[in-house]
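Why do we bother with a discrete structure alphabet at all? Because it lets us treat a fold like text: something you can write down, compare, and reason about line by line. To make this less abstract, here is a complete entry for Universal stress protein. Read it the way you would read a sentence in a foreign language you are learning: slowly, and without expecting to understand everything at once.
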Amino acid sequence: MGVDGSDRSLDAVRWAAAEAVRRGKPLVIASAADTAAAALGFNLTASDSFYRYLEGRTDEALAAAKAAARETRPEVEIGTVSGATKPVDLLTSLSENSVLTVVGDTGASGFSRALIGSVAQGVARKVTGPVAVVRGTAAADGAVVVGVDGSEVSATAVRAAFEEASARGVDLIAVHAWTDLPASYAAAYAAAYDIDWEAERTREEAALAENLAGYADEFPDVTVARVVTRGDATAALVHHSEGASLVVVGSHGRGAVGAFLLGSVSGHVIAHSASPVLIVRNPVQS
């Protein structure tokens, strides 16, 4: 996981330490000082003392992160990595041998809880494995929330959500939102196009049940609450993130179109969720 010495990154390292223990994996804490980029902000002949200052800041960030991890989970196995490179590049490289990459939602220069920091954005876009963006508050006994739309990307997220709910011993809330039509227009739209909203809802409920079919046998310990709502999928997921332990969203991996882009739903959720967000990839065949 990546740290920069900010309070948000320490929150993230505490969450990552608990996850490492739960998964039975060591925790690798990484911090980077991009000395080349930093020097351009001052002059091209920055002194050795300037570089030593940046390296000292990196060492301080790692030491604070280790202390926070130990305080949270004394039994966690910890390793540290530092580098004179861009944080996103360092984390992307480390992710190749990791089961999960963890970042805080904003860093030392963060302005708002409604904004996701550049490092978190970069990692979420470039890392092809699972990425957790730690924001808000994770309720220990809160449900895992997942969005379901019937796509292949959604199916990858649904499986991951069942696995997370089972491992945590919590319920799963499966959210399916249909039609982006504003509620204020619904009546007029239904009248104009002769739409039976109740019949549509019944069909959507059946579609959600079909998308979840099979997982009940595989994960008999997970209690599932099915939520079908008419409206914006992102708003529904953010709403249900309140009091959740985790929100799971899918996103395309590397490929012709989805290479470095987050989907509109996943991007919105990681910017506004009230609890940590797990982004799972659905690799795109090239």
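What the structure line is telling us, in plain words: The longest strand covers residues 172-178. The chain has two domains: 7-134, 144-280.
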